[in-house]
Design brief:
This protein is an alpha/beta fold. The chain contains eight helices and seven strands; from the N terminus they run H-H-H-H-E-H-E-H-E-E-H-E-H-E-E. It has a seven-stranded mixed beta sheet, with helices on both faces.
Length: 205
């Protein structure tokens, strides 16, 4: 929790309270439904919360914006971002029922009124969003194919590995302009060694 406060020093008391509540909530749920590895649970705030909040280092969601968290799993990056941006509406979507059940329970426990959870494949969701966020779900080519025409501002992905090669494949398959892509090294925001090699990819509409 201290690492979150170090990188985000302007949190309100309610935000601090909600971030502090995350670890015990996930530890309790993880004992019933395994959504986070034991190793990651030991580094929960670094590997899950701070990693999710890297999105906020590059993009500030405006008040009233709509964000789809595609393949949210147990609620990442959507839940930490929803705590940080209480005036932004988040839709957390996952096709695996037990994972979205955990996310929904955490949302309810925290009293996050700016979040809804949906157990569905993203292709079946109606409507359009300002932003789509995703964390280690699928290659960029697939991600873009699933949400093409469904966002008005940008697709924001937390990735590792050879993201430039993924982007090249996405550009070729979907005939996109390379200028639409922005790559950010997460290690330029966070000092912890775990973030070396991890990147944020932004695909503008």
């Amino acid at each position: 929790m201290n690492t979150v406060e170090r990188y985000f020093p302007d949190l309100t008391p309610l935000q601090r309270e909600r971030f502090a509540a995350l670890a015990p909530l996930y530890r309790d749920w993880n004992a019933k439904i395994n959504v986070i590895s034991r190793k990651d649970m030991d580094s929960f705030y670094e590997h899950h919360v701070l990693h999710s909040l890297a999105v906020a280092k590059a993009v500030r969601f405006p008040e009233g914006a709509t964000v789809l968290d595609l393949g949210t799993g147990g609620g990442f990056p959507g839940i930490p971002l929803a705590i940080l941006f209480p005036e932004t509406h988040f839709t957390l979507c996952d096709s695996i029922g037990k994972k979205i059940r955990v996310a929904a329970a955490v949302v309810a426990s925290l009293g996050l009124e700016n979040v809804e959870t949906v157990n569905a494949r993203v292709e079946t969701l109606p409507g359009r969003y300002d932003y789509v966020v995703s964390r280690a779900v699928a290659p960029l080519t697939d991600l873009y194919g699933w949400v093409k025409g469904r966002f008005s501002r940008s697709l924001i992905c937390l990735k590792g590995g050879e993201v430039e090669a993924e982007a090249e494949a996405c550009i070729a398959r979907h005939r996109l302009s390379p200028e639409r892509f922005t790559f950010c090294e997460i290690a330029m925001w966070y000092q912890e060694p775990w973030f070396e090699g991890k990147k944020l990819v932004i695909l503008a509409q």
